[in-house]
Amino acid sequence: MEIHIVLDNIRSAFNVGSIFRSADGAGSVKKIYLCGITTDIDNPKLEKTALGATEMIPSEHYDTTHEAIEEIKELGIPIYCVELTEDAENFQSVKYPSKIALIFGHEKRGVDDKTLKIVDKKIYVPMRGLKESLNVANCASVILYEITRE
């Protein structure tokens, strides 16, 4: 399994650091694409939660998410967006390809419509409580561990 993670305008450096740490823990993550306002790895707040995981996983900053998507599409890797939309599928019922890119969006706004139109599939984590969604870092952990479990 080869996983690429696209962080689309994640505003919290702490969330980004947590995603790095979960990505290292789950294994199989080849690269993390830091897009738009997502902080780069030199941010001390990021390192506070990453605890060195930025040294384990290659990353690169892109001005826009679409630049990262273009690069991933050139590699022929399917792109799945983690977003609660009408046509999104429960992440537990999806058969994942051996190579995949996962887009995680802004904590409040999610992923924009322009991006949603060009991805291969949309997936979501079902909620059993009253809240609509998980924190983005928690969501990434749940999905990464599920995908690598198979």
TrEMBL record:
Transmembrane segments: none annotated. Gene3D superfamilies: 3.40.1280.10. The keyword Transferase applies. Residues 3-145 form the tRNA/rRNA methyltransferase SpoU type domain. Keywords: Methyltransferase, Transferase. Pfam families: SpoU_methylase. GO terms for biological process: methylation; RNA processing. GO terms for molecular function: RNA binding; RNA methyltransferase activity. PANTHER family: OBP33PEP LIKE PROTEIN, RRNA METHYLTRANSFERASE 3. This is RNA methyltransferase. It comes from Candidatus Dojkabacteria bacterium.
